[in-house]
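Teaching soon. Invent one.


***
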Amino acid sequence: MIHMEGNMERVNEKEKEFRFGDAGPKYLFRGPRIEWGILVLKPGGSLGAHFHKEVEETFYFLEGKGKLIIDGTEYPGGAGEAFRLEPGEKHDILNDSQSPIRAVFIKCPYKPEDKIKI
């Protein structure tokens, strides 16, 4: 539930659900200009390869380790690291560790239809 206080919006993460029960993306805010949330990937899980035509996307790792694959090149990622992707860059996150990955994702501009799966 989003709480409005003037123009400010406030939400508690516990009030939102992950797409796949206890993993996947959990959107905290969607629009009007950006969308962002929390991503959890279980060991062996992946985000799913995709790209955006107009949207840039940023990932900030809160916990865990894995691989960010950008245009076919693998980059190790872990807690404290951030990656910003330009529109058109094909990307995926793989959890090849034994612990969950927890990351923040931010997409701008807000264009929820701009996702092309590979």
Q: What stands out?
A: The two ends are 32 Å apart (CA to CA). The domain at 22-117 is CATH 2.60.120.10 (Jelly Rolls). The longest strand covers residues 56-63.
